[in-house]
Amino acid sequence: MAFHQNVQLVWYKRDLRVVDHEVLAKAARHGAVLPLFIVEPELWQQPDMSGRQWAFVAECLQGLRRDLAALGQPLIVRIGDAVEVLHDLCDANDISAVWSHEETGNAWTYARDRRVAAWAQSRSIRRIELRQSGVVRRLRTRNGWAKNWDSFMAMPIAQVPQALTPLNGIDLGSIPSVNELGIKSDHCPQRQDGGRSAGLACLESFLQKRGAPYRRAMSSPAVGALHCSRISPHLAWGTLSMREVAQATWVKRRELKEQGEQGPWKGSMTSFEGRLHWRDHFIQKLEDEPSLEFRNLHRAYDHLRPREPDQVRLAAWVNGETGLPFVDACMRALNKTGWMNFRMRAMLMAVASYHLWLDWRQPGEHLARMFIDYEPGIHWSQVQMQSGTTGINTVRIYNPIKQGLDQDPDGCFIRTWVPELAMIPDPFVHEPWNWDGAGEILDRVYPRPVVDHLQAAKDARQKVWGVRNNADFRRQAQAIQHKHGSRKSGIKMRGQASKPLSETNQLSLPLSNGGIDG
Q1: What is the full DSSP assignment across 320-340?
Q2: C-alpha to C-alpha distance for 480 and 388, rounded to whole angstroms
Q3: Which residues pair with 442 in a beta bridge?
Q4: In whole angstroms, how far apart are CA 305 and each of 285, 358, 387, 481?
Q5: Rounded Cα gap, residues 396 and 500, in angstroms
Q6: CA-to-CA distance for 50 and 185, rounded, in angstroms?
Q7: Where does residue 276 rank: exposed (0-12), middle (13-18), buried (19+ CB within 10 A)?
Q8: pLDDT tens across the length of the chain (518 residues)
Q9: Which 3 state secondary structure label does DSSP give 411?
């Protein structure tokens, strides 16, 4: 193998693109670039990672390899521990610096990055990390965060290098399949395609055609699947940058203004832009406090729910067999597609936390695995928010029957995903136990509800609010709000009620790993 000098190693992680890739652009100015992706088997064995996610990432890597090859140097792929892979490449080449974008990942990647930093220091190798989103590392205060976000997104798109010097003699390595990587089989027949081309097509169709009814349609799991942006997995894995999405959205808004648009497009684009802010706002929480992936943000909730969940209830929820038709339809749709709109994600987590009284960690891990767009910062912040353990958000106890009646009044979505209920008359599809012929279906082909949802909600509300009713709770909540809360002059929550909504019909912020689909 040839020995190459003055090599700039560009370590790809959740930034699988060549466009608006500041790391690639800057590294290429300093010498030959070795673009590297490390497939880390231990990462993919973590309880929040899944085969469906890897299948999506593998498609993204194939597209990235083609794009880099067109510049002169294809992507190099290695399988193994990051420190060992970097060590071997540095022994075989004169690596001047290791470049990467900052990443706010799960606890495993956080620990890995610290090991890589220690290794680089021990070898006296420069390690350069650059910001790629609105998330600010080592943030001291939330004051001015939104203005900082706007300024960052308004910066020019980083240009693609005109060419990369070929590094002849270095084996490119293969992109492993799910089976080759040893990940548990997780077939997701209706998931989105990976790769930048698919991401660009999604963004284009949303901004030009699908997005008009976005504001009205985004709460429906059926209609939202068409009219939400669906770019969240491409933001999560970086085939699109947040900056190019934000700037494309601003262009669309300017066009609408010039056209005097007063129809649905105007409100939909306003809502969409707000959720671009919210995406990084929630990731910032995990960046500032990595422990929220594992422990309650407000410690008063530490002993509220049993740490070990009721496995029967958990299994019913995971498999879409709770006996609550709309809940089960949403879970089954998620399991088959890898996507669900934000409101229903929130409802699924709330039902697990309140009605089934499950500790949030295991349900949160299941949802993480199911989401193609899993983004740890958004996910764990929202899991805790919907479980009522942040101490600073209104308790949201969804009525799953009312949600179904509101979002699927004719029961079409339920019948699509829970075909066992196909013969139930329309007036009873949301509550089949009230039908005179229920005995033909319930406990035969479809279960009765695992809980009385009204009584379970009442019991949960009393327990959760009981914890909040003391001065110590409020003092800790104030400290959490100061550290993690949005500022009044900052991020805009368009459409939010001026007063808390009733607990049985709360609006929710997006429980989404891409964070913008609702």
Answers
A1: T-SS-HHHHHHHHHHHHHS--
A2: 14
A3: 446
A4: 23, 7, 10, 23
A5: 10
A6: 8
A7: buried
A8: 566 788 999 999 999 999 999 999 999 999 999 999 999 999 999 999 999 999 999 999 999 999 999 999 999 999 999 999 999 999 999 999 999 999 999 999 999 999 999 999 999 999 999 999 999 999 999 999 999 999 999 999 999 999 999 999 999 999 999 999 999 889 999 999 999 999 999 999 999 999 999 999 999 999 999 999 999 999 999 999 999 999 999 999 999 999 998 889 999 999 999 999 999 999 999 999 999 999 998 998 998 999 888 999 999 999 999 999 999 999 999 999 999 999 999 999 999 999 999 999 999 999 999 999 999 999 999 999 999 999 888 888 999 999 999 999 999 999 999 999 999 999 999 999 999 999 999 999 999 999 999 999 999 999 988 888 888 888 888 999 888 887 643 333 333 333 332 333 332 334 333 444 54
A9: coil
Sign of CA dihedral 430, 431, 433, 437: negative
Token pair in block for residue 382: 């929202």
pTM, to two decimals: 0.92
- Tell me how far apart the 2 most distant CA atoms of the chain are, in Å: 79
Distance CA 435, CA 217 (A): 30
Nearest 10 degrees: Cα torsion 314, 317, 319, 322? 120
The strand ranges marked E within 435-502 are none
b/e map of 73-107 (b: 16 or more CB within 10 Å)?
bbbbbbbebbeebbeebbeebebbbbbbbbbbbbb
What is the token pair recorded at 15? 């930034």
Nearest to 150, CA basis, from 25, 16, 274: 274
Return the number of other C-beta atoms located less than 10 Å from residue 505's C-beta: 13
